[in-house]
Amino acid sequence: MKTICLYFEIHQIIHLKRYRFFEIGTDHYYYDDYANEQGINDVAERSYIPALTTLIEMAKNNEGAFKVALSISGVALEQLEIHAPAVIELLQELNATGCCEFICEPYSHGLSSLANEECFREEVEVMRKKIKDYFGQDPKIFRNSSLIYDNEIGGIVASMGFKGQLIEGAKHVLGWKSPHYLYHCTENPNLKLLMRDFKLSDDISLRFSNSEWSEYPLFADTYIDWIASLPENEQVINIFMELSALGIAQPLSSNILEFLKALPVCAKQKGITFSTPTEIVTKLKSVDMMDVPYPMSWSDEERDISPWLGNVMQREAFNKLYSVAERVHLCDDRRIKQDWYYLQASNNFRFMTTKDTGVGLNRGIYDSPYDAFTNYMNILGDFLARVNALYPVDMDNEELGSLLTTIKNQGEELVQLNEEVAKLQAELKKAEAKKPAAKKTTTAKKASTAKKENKAE
Fold this sequence. Notes:
Number of helices: 17
Distance between the termini: 88 Å
Helix content: 40-55%
Shape: globular
Number of strands: 10
Largest sheet: 5 strands, parallel
């Protein structure tokens, strides 16, 4: 039986403001508050609110037959908290239906998985806790920024306890294989891989309202017929996209939400189900390993990391940012940590791309990739100075490594102490539980003795 794994991602960039060279050292606030508020409210009104309302309606009307998965970046969650709390309320309402699984991703929606393992682990754990706090779910599935993945990343994700990861079904990786099976990581076979069917996904997210597309207009029964016509043993159809595709990339006037609503009904008629990623990795067995020696993503035709690290400017900015990764990891300054997450967001590097993809790129306030690079590097110059003021540049790697080791050892000692305290508390509770019984026995003995003495008299 075929099953559809439908997944949506929510991410919203933090817009940087115009930051001049002479502001370095004098202005430590880097963001355009007006653009951020306007941007999140616009996408919430045009996409998130109507799309989530539709998903809630689908979950309630299909009596558990419809399932969906969602992930949300930490920076997007912060903006929604401030400017569009109604979206969070809808996410919680969708969660309450029991038909939605929340997937974990890096807090910053950044590229730390390509740069620094400790920073990557840290922000994933921060996001993991956020999901637990907001939705009461302990994520079992991971999704990296823009589905970036290679064997090494898979090994790290597996070591963090995740059971599965969403990745791109790129042609250069799949070869003759189909994305409609469950695969596993070469580094650790316990990590199952769900591969995105980019054609079926892009038919909805990119082509749905294109009147020049040969399949326009696309109806739900036609779409489900395509899935039903796949070979019988191809059982997993992974359809992944950004939630903003519903309302922004594909305007509501295109009837995209009506199309979505009809999918479960048409699927049921063909005997096709909907499943969450955890249900799939739990019920199905992997058919083979998926070897991905070099990083891939779901962006552009090449499906690689060139949209963010394809030119000298991008790599220079990337290397400069992560040159202080270890120092930021040591830091407990809230403002620096927050700026660190915002500056890591992959969109900042995307604005610097010089690739000609044939698709228009909205660079926001920037006139060109060089303009984006200059502005970012000015901000980065101030940020690096603040970090280095806490942990001086003349502290060499050996000293920094020693400090990190000390902190790690202290952390391990605290864990051991906490375990010992918990053990002692448990023993104390047991001892206290025995006391009343002992007291009762003593009282009974005294009563019996008194009774005997009375009889003797």
